[in-house]
Write a structure and sequence with these properties.
Strand order of the largest sheet: 1-2-3-4-5
Shape: globular
Number of strands: 5
Distance between the termini: 10 Å
Largest sheet: 5 strands, mixed
């Protein structure tokens, strides 16, 4: 990924990495964007919101990192459901060796998840940017 200086080691690292990539593509990015309530009533905070400055097309991105086996996997199904309730299009960007093969398969099957390594081209396609980058 262009501009990638070090390996991502946390969800917060991923948020900054996603913002850096979006901005390198000429997109606007905001982190920890508060918007409405989650499906269970808690305040909704989208990790990163990306917007094309000309078309104003907007995308919300939830960043999920799992360095080792653990609880991040348990939160994925509710995150997928929550994205459906967003007022904008949304995806989950994920990274880390801790996601099981089954969870990776589930993520891909939702059509709402992108591996961090694939995000550059995914954003180019979504926002209609130059594919030669």
């Amino acid at each position: 990924m262009p501009g990638r200086g070090r390996a991502v080691q946390s969800g917060q690292d991923m948020e900054f990495e996603v913002m850096q990539l979006a901005e390198a593509l000429g997109l606007e990015a905001r982190r920890q964007f508060r918007v409405g309530r989650r499906i269970w009533g808690a305040v909704r905070v989208i990790d990163v919101v990306v917007r094309h400055p000309d078309t104003r097309q907007t995308l919300g991105i939830e960043c999920k990192y799992q360095g080792s086996t653990g609880s991040a996997e348990e939160k994925i199904p509710s995150t997928v459901l929550d994205i459906e309730a967003w007022p904008i299009a949304g995806i989950i960007v994920f990274a880390g060796e801790g996601f099981s093969g089954n969870m990776r398969s589930y993520l891909y099957s939702t059509g709402k998840a992108v591996d961090l390594e694939d995000l550059d081209m995914w954003l180019r396609l979504f926002f209609g940017l130059d594919l030669e980058g």
